[in-house]
Amino acid sequence: MAVTDTPARIEAAFAEAGVTGWLHALDIDSGAQLGTGADQLVCTASVHKLCLLVTLHQLAATGALDLGEPVECPPAGRTAGPTGLAAMLDPVRMSVRDVAYLMMAVSDNAAADLLLGRVGLAAVNRTTQRLGLSGTHAVHTFGELLATIRTDAGPDGARALTDPHVITRLRALDPARTNRSTPRDMTRLLGAVWRDEACTPEHGAAIRRILGLQVWPHRMASGFPFDDVHVAGKTGSLPTVRNEVGVVEYPDGGRYAVAVFTRTAHTAATLPAADAVIGTAARIAVDALRAR
């Protein structure tokens, strides 16, 4: 397979799945890369939790934050969500480190906003700026993001999100007005984490461990169904948006950062083909990098 054919193959896979997609893939060690729409501004959704995780570990490395410090999470005021603390009914007390685990492993919105309450959006943006991620910016917390969706959807609430006309007015889906990045920025961040350039080696290892504990196998990991190939990543979802960024590690030592962001015109919450094409596109890209 000619490497020059790879973007066309990726775009064909996106089209067949009924999505518009943007992708960047990076060989973490050699620097070889490829992509399609790699510098397109995209809505990160929960992928931005990776930036928060790196921020937490940078602060911990300097002594500005204790990852073992306990965090209280009363039921009242929790950010909504279907997983983790967001779905729990009783008071919870756990460490900053374990709250971060829930934020990443099950994409817990309440956990993310507890941590943002500790460090602030400005700290997250300073982290991405220091790492040279010029297209990456956090505009609001996850609770604030969900609030814009409720406001923009209007009085019919979640039912209105099946209407394509309503979808077009959601600020949460406009990269100019929401948390945003580019595929290339996200692979640059992952590469820095895997090379211990984003944090000290101790904290880099902790970030990699947490990313490896994500529970969702239906997107990027679906493209690598091998017991000896490890995928560590973070998904992100909003109405019509399905994303994942991650690192694929092979037993021969090959390490590949891949960022895939997609949009579809279909408003259904369940679209297996749109999820699976993230794994398909990632596999096409990684295979091409490995063939170089």
TrEMBL record:
Keywords: Hydrolase. One of its GO terms (molecular function) is hydrolase activity. PANTHER family: BETA-LACTAMASE, BETA-LACTAMASE-TYPE TRANSPEPTIDASE FOLD CONTAINING PROTEIN. This is Class A beta-lactamase-related serine hydrolase. It comes from Streptomyces endophytica. It comes from the Bacteria. Residues 23-262 form the Beta-lactamase class A catalytic domain. Pfam families: Beta-lactamase2 (PF13354).
